[in-house]
Structures are given as C-alpha cells and as structure tokens.
Design a protein that fits this description.
The protein is of the alpha/beta class. 35% of the residues lie in helices and 24% in strands. The structure holds adenosine-5'-triphosphate and magnesium ion.
Length: 466
C-alpha cells in the first residue's frame, strides 16, 4: 500500500486555541537561561521558579527524544499560572515538535466518541519527519516568454533555464506562469523547481547579473549559476503529524477535511496500516518519529472512561508527552463515586509526575499586572498599580487582571490617557469579585430562585416557579 504524506500545498493544521492564548499573549517562553535556570522575570514569565525549572528539564528531555509516553500533571490553586506555564513550554519547543492544546471538556463536545477524539488529539501530537527524494530543476533563468491569448483566460509560454554546462527550454502552463509571477521571477534569477508539485523557489540573483546591482536594492542575494545537470535529485525533509497522515489516507475524508477540521471518525484499519508503514519507514531510516506534547487543561473534567483510555494510549507504540493541568484538590473522579487526589484515578496518577504551582506574593502579582498593562497597551500610574496589586492579593490575580481593561475604559470616559487610582476604585465597585459575590448571595439568598424553584420578592409574598 502506498501512503500519502502530503496534501499538496499549504495543508492547514487547526488553530482553534485562540481564546486560550489571548490572556497569555504576553508569554513568549519559559524564561530560562542557557543552563535551564529560570530568570526571575523573563519572556513575560514572573516567579513560579520551581515549576519553570521542572518544565525546562521536560523541554530538554523532549529535545533528546527521551520522554515519550509520559504524563505530567501541573497542579495548583486557580490563577497560579498553570495554563500560562504550558503556553510558555510550547514556545520553547523546537519548531518541528507538535504541540496540541485542548480543554478536557472539548472531548465531550465533538460529534464523535470520546475515545475517537482522544485518539485524534494524541495523534495530532506526534510528528513524523519524512525524508523524501524529489527531482528538482535548478538553474539560472535566461529568458521567460509568455503569450497571453486575447481573451485572457489561457496562458502559455516558455522558460529558458541554464547551468554553466547546459541550457534547456521548458514549456509553461497556466499554473507555472502564475507561480512565476507570484514569486516575481525574472531573467537572471537562480531558481529551483520541484518537479513533483511545480513549486518554485527563488535561490537568489546570479553573479553574472551583478552589474545590474544598482537596480536591485541592497538586500538582493547573489549566488553562482549552478554547474552540471539541470535536473538533480535532492533530499527534502518535511514534518507532518500522524493525524494528518490518517486524514489524508482515509478514503471518506480526503485531505480537504484538514481545512474544515471536519474529519469525523477514522477507521481503525486505516490507522493500523499507517502505523505499520511508519514503523517500516523508521526501520529503513526514511522517517523519524518526533513525540510532541499534548496539553489537556482542566483535566478533572474528563471521566473515568477517558482516563483509562489515556492509560492505554500512553502505552502505545507512538505516544506523545501528555501534560495535564488541574486546580482540584481531593475530589470525585467523574463517572465514579470515589474521591482521589486532583480528581485523577490512582492508576493514572501513579504514572504521572506532578509539578506544583504556588500562590504568588505581592511583588510577583504587581509585576504580572504591569506586564498585562503593557500587553494591553494601557498606561497606569504607580498608585493605581499599587491598589490593583492589593486587590490582586486579596481577591485573585485573574480578577485584578480583568479590572485592567475595565479601568482603562473608565479612564477613557473621563478623557484621560492614564489609569489613576479612582478608575480602579470605580471598576472595583462596579464589578464584584467572587468572594463579594458570595457574601452578597448569602445576605440576599431569599431573593434568588432556590433549588426547589422558590423565590421571595419581599417578606410577605412567596412565589413558586414551576
Ligand atoms: N508566572 C507568571 N508570569 C506571567 N504571567 C502569569 C504567570 N502566572 C499567571 N500569569 C497570568 O495570569 C493569568 C492567570 O493565569 P493562568 O490562567 O495560567 O492560571 P491557571 O493556573 O491556569 O488557573 P486555573 O486553575 O483557574 O485554570 C493569565 O493571564 C496568565 O497569563
Ligand atoms: Mg488554567
């Protein structure tokens, strides 16, 4: 069986994690130095040194390909940077290492079984680097001649390409002509044409044209005209995920499904065959497996069936590193009646190494809030930042950070470009944090609809909602 690994030009990978990333847009890495020691504040990351150091080691192990099939749990109280740490880690990974981020509840919201969704995200997180030999035409363009028909629709033409030893004329069709004009190829350029897909790459300007330098601009790269044959075999490397190979080769879906994300369930026979083939390629040295990272946020939302399936997937031949995050303490595992640490069943917990995150101190909260202000491009004065920090310490980092954009609007309303202490006060009064909301509810409990559907509008009238 032949297995396709490329969907042609520009096969898209899904990017449905925008919302997850926006509140972490200030983070551009784990902020480690060359010895994997965390810097106090770097790449948008502040404090949480232990956890960052631990994740730095994880990154190192991923680089060395040592840690496939392991599970890591980041556990800690709400808004202590668990999701932020995972986003930082993803940016420290090499560019070919796949990283997939999901929130546990997504597993239940797809139009497919839980096990299928889990299998897909696992396979999205495994990269296959494939070595392929392709035939390319490489040479200097001598002349391009394009004839346009009067009606404009059909184009045809000729291109003359040479090396130092030979010169050939090739016929051009519509697609190649478009490709040439897209890459702005002109006579004197040294180009490479991939014979398999017609893709044209401009390698530079030929030295023989160096005297036209004045007209070219300073950033022009000069290369020498290739020698020898025009057609040469070249080794190219490309990386796809196992899931992409699945989709491209599953007959019902076809590669277009990669663009819509609507991949449906993939038959297990297809996957078996692909695993077999990839295994063979690996043996023959044609492919290299790159275990990536699957990040499952809010992992306590998974149920017992998902957890046991993850146990199984972790033992698979191809398995990524699974990083999970939760803010739960001892709590019930969904789908069971028993409690366990972090809501994870003990057999999975046993396979997991745990990284904990701690609450931030005042200084760290202040620094993070300042970074968020810069990120949201708002100006804040010192007093206001101090008050905001105090609010952050007493309520939560996330609440304080949400007040930034609100206070910005409040300050704009009084035509000020800078947030002052009164703006923070006003937005603090306008929007409740969770603890004030709880105490308000406790005081006014009878005005709300209760579990029995009863509500009291004033002391005398009892209303029953049915
Ligand atoms: N160490 C840090 N450095 C910089 N920014 C941080 C840090 N920790 C948290 N933040 C920012 O604070 C906010 C809250 O953090 P985050 O969402 O990562 O918390 P969490 O631990 O995932 O919380 P939850 O348990 O509620 O999911 C985010 O905007 C995050 O980017
Ligand atoms: Mg989180």
């Amino acid at each position: 069986m032949s297995i396709a690994t490329s969907a042609g030009e520009g096969a898209a990978t899904s990017s449905n994690n925008l919302a997850l990333i926006a509140s972490h847009s200030h983070i551009s890495g784990l902020g480690l130095d060359d010895h994997l020691q965390p810097r106090e504040a770097s790449q948008g990351m502040v404090g949480q040194l232990q956890a960052r150091k631990a994740l730095g080691i994880v990154v190192k192990m991923i680089e060395q390909g040592k840690i496939a099939g392991r599970a890591i749990l980041i556990a800690g109280p709400p808004s202590t940077g668990k999701t932020a740490l995972a986003m930082g880690l993803s940016q420290n990974l090499g560019k070919d290492v796949p990283f997939t981020a999901i929130t546990a509840s997504e597993i239940f919201s797809k139009e497919m079984s839980k096990t299928e969704s889990l299998t897909q995200v696992f396979r999205k997180s495994i990269g296959i680097r494939i070595k392929e030999e392709t035939e390319v035409i490489e040479g200097e363009v001598v002349e391009i001649q394009i004839d346009r028909s009067l009606t404009g629709g059909h184009k045809q033409g000729k291109i003359t390409i040479r090396t130092t030893d030979m010169e050939t004329i090739y016929e051009l069709g519509n697609k190649m002509i478009d490709e040439l004009s897209k890459e702005k190829i002109i006579a004197g350029d040294v180009i490479s044409i991939d014979k398999a897909n017609g893709k044209i790459t401009k390698l530079g300007r030929s030295y023989t044209r160096a005297r036209d330098y004045d007209a070219m601009g300073a950033d022009t790269k000069f290369v020498s005209c290739p020698e020898g044959e025009l057609q040469v075999r070249k080794e190219v490397l490309h990386t796809v995920s196992l899931h992409e190979i699945d989709v491209i080769n599953s007959r019902q879906q076809g590669f277009l499904a990669l663009f819509s994300g609507d991949t449906g369930e993939i038959r297990s026979e297809v996957r078996d065959q692909i695993n077999l083939k990839v295994g063979e390629w690996k043996e023959e040295g044609k492919a290299e497996i790159i275990p990536g990272v699957l990040f499952i946020d809010e992992v306590h939302m998974l149920d017992i069936e998902c957890f046991s399936f993850i146990n199984r997937l972790l033992e698979d031949e191809f398995s990524p590193i699974v990083i999970m995050a939760t803010n739960r303490g001892i709590s019930k595992t969904r789908g069971t009646n028993y409690k366990s640490p972090h809501g994870l069943p003990l057999d999975l917990l046993d396979r997991t190494i745990i990284i904990k995150t701690d609450k931030y101190n005042e200084d760290e909260i202040s620094k993070i809030l300042k970074i968020r202000c810069d990120e949201e491009e708002v100006e804040i004065n010192n007093d206001a930042l101090q008050l905001l920090t105090k609010i952050g310490v007493e309520t939560s980092l996330r609440y304080a950070s949400n007040l930034i954009s609100v206070s910005n609007l409040v300050s704009k309303k009084r035509r000020s470009e800078i947030i002052e202490i009164d703006d923070i006060k006003r937005s603090y009064l306008l929007f409740l944090d969770s603890s004030r909301s709880v105490s308000y509810l406790q005081e006014n409990e009878s005005n709300y609809i209760d579990d029995e559907g009863k509500v009291k509008f004033n002391e005398e009238v009892d209303v029953e909602m049915k």
